[in-house]
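Bug #77: duplicate submission created two jobs. Keeping one. Sequence:
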Amino acid sequence: MNNIEMLDREILEYILDFLPDAMFAIDREGRVIKWNRAVEEMTGVKASDIIGKGDYEVAVPFYGHKRPVLAHYAMLIDEKDIEKNYSTIKQEGNVLIAEVYVPFPGYRKEGAWLWGRAAPLYNAEGVIIGAVEVVRDITERKRMEEERLLIERNKAESEKNKSIEILAAGVAHDFNNILMAILGYADLINVSNTSENIRKHITEIKKAVLRGSELSQQMLRFAGKTNVVFEPVNPSQIVTDIIDLLRVSVSRKIEIQLNAGSSDLFIRGDPTQLRQIILNLVLNSAEAIGDKTGVIRIDIDRIYADKEFQRSFLRGFDCEEGYYIRIGITDNGCGMDEEVLKHIFEPFFSTKFAGRGLGMAEVLGIIRSHKGAIRVTSRVGEGSTFEIYLPSVSKSEFSDKDGEDLSGNIRKFSGTVLLADDEDAVRLSVGAMLKRLGFEVLVAEDGEEALKLYISMKKKPEFMFLDILMPAMDGVELLREVRKINPFQKVVFISGFTGNKINLSGLNEKITAFIQKPFDAYALSDVISKLNDKEEEKV
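Kept job's structure:
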């Protein structure tokens, strides 16, 4: 070795010792060939005491025992062995990077987080002759990250609790209004002296019940505990059906105008969710108008959205080129500035001191689930326009079954049915509906009572109507016991909770159905008819 080479080597040694990061190198056999000053300070082990040692001795100052370190794996990657020693590791070319928690390292009494970066060393011929590794103690950084995450979690929890308080207040407000409507119209029925007034009040009660049902569905959707049911829907009919509800839900100073367009405009969607969208947007427009005299206009038409239209107006939505039903809701309220428009779809965002629930965030979620888009235009003092775009479908795309409308007709039946529900009011109301449909009705307060009654019956019932959540024995457990006695017993599950909508697989879907509370006699007749039709198809 000449003087220049010796000088270069000394300079290299000085540079390596000058590095602030702990660094060491091992040869092909795993013997330590370099141990810089920073690693001496980190571990308390002098270079003179470890240079030349092999047999995984290099790991002892860090881990307190012998084991492969990152530098060993850099020379020969053994993925299974790496997984045993490093929970998280990534590879960038020929470089390995990892973090590992060491409960009892050899250089400190308490546990430590270590970060390592290792790469193989090559000779002039490109043959691996060893590996080099840089090690950092990142315990303090990890501690600070954990503190930051804890602060963020606490902040998020605080915001979540505040949001839940706002949501609960809004739900309580809406439910109290609904209950007030039911109580008020029920009281009016008591003093009504004409059948026309009675019918009108009953209609209003049914509307209030539907509002309550939709509110509970909104809560379940917020919790991610409900399923979307897509079916052929006429948006014009949806709005027409709830226009009276909309008009009584806003100030008398506000006029709601409807341009419903053609009756042949159809989409495939969930009618409950679509009603909720319209209701939310109209209420938002009413709040923007406030106590002033104003107009809310609802326009429904069909447009063709080509690629240029999508780029210009529907950017950020999963929309394909084609025909869309456009539902436009325009008001002459206070309008919104750019800052409000920027945040309008954020959960619980509100320009008021207290929100009414999920608001526009839920609207956006529903529209996305329908493969649609929403566009908002607004200027301060000039009002706002919300335009919803939903994929259009033609009547010819519907099957005969889709187009069937059994809701205005109640079919008559005969025979005996068994009804099991733990709520007195449900047994009375559903029992009355079943009698109206022509059945003789036997009732039970829970699953166990229903099973005893079923076993005692010589002639088994035509149908069983079972609540899902009952004490002692739930509806599904009851059905499994009943099917052991009679494998062909027809059953309709009734429940107000659709958190994980009942899985009918394994329960013979040909003779098993589900109906969600609340429902009326028309819906009950529909479910029974369809179940009978399924059984006839089976025969």
